[in-house]
Amino acid sequence: MFSLFPKKQFLDTDAQHKIVACIAEAESKTSGEIRVYMEANCPYVDPIDRAKEVFTSLGMEKTVARNAVIIYIAYTDKQFALFGDAAIYELSGGASFWKNAAATLSIHLKKQEYTLGLCNCINELGAALATHFPPDPNIKKNELPDEIVFGK
């Protein structure tokens, strides 16, 4: 049977450091914010519903420019979702941009290239943020932490 995610630890410490560094690098070119949230199981049928819930619980809708993005992964359930706040969702091209970004991430996950896939996705989202939300001296440099958030 095909598996997107192995049953072992999803990301080792080195992979986590690489992903956090990738987030910091992407955010250095924008006033936007990127977060990665991981948990074993998604409590909803559709992972986008959970991504929206986590987005709000992490206070991501409170960024000054409404330009935060979350990458949600439920590794045991083999589900993921990308969710962007109102401003970045529309400016990046709407549903087609997000579907393409998700498709790219999915290809890497299927190949078990987790770190590469997440970093490529972060870079893609970061490029969209940088295009529409360049660095703004009036916005606090880093409104949200870059660390990966691990749920249950």
What do you see in this structure?
The protein is of the alpha/beta class and 152 residues long. The chain has one domain (13-135, 144-150): Diaminopimelate Epimerase, Chain A, domain 1 (Roll), CATH 3.10.310.50. The protein contains five helices and four strands; from the N terminus they run H-E-H-E-E-H-H-H-E. The chain has helices at 13-27, 47-57, 86-91, 95-110, 114-132; strands spanning 33-39, 68-74, 79-84, 149-150. A four-stranded mixed beta sheet has the order 3-2-1-4, with helices on both faces. The longest helix has 19 residues, at 114-132. The model has no long low-confidence stretch (mean pLDDT 91).
Overall residue-averaged pLDDT value: 91
CATH class: Alpha Beta
| Number of distinct beta strands | 4
Second-tier CATH architecture: Roll
Spell out the helices and strands N to C: HEHEEHHHE
CA distance, first residue to last residue: 25 Å
* Percent in strands: 5-15%
Q: Please tally the helical runs, counting DSSP H or I stretches of 4 or more residues.
A: 5
Tell me the major beta sheet.
4 strands, mixed
Question: How much helicity do the residues have?
Answer: 40-55%
User: From the alpha-carbon coordinates, what is the Rg to the nearest angstrom?
Assistant: 14 Å
Please list the strands of the largest sheet in the order they lie side by side: 3-2-1-4
Write the CATH fold name. Diaminopimelate Epimerase, Chain A, domain 1
Q: Helix- and strand-based class?
A: alpha/beta
Shape: globular
| Model regions low in confidence, pLDDT < 50 over at least 5 residues | none
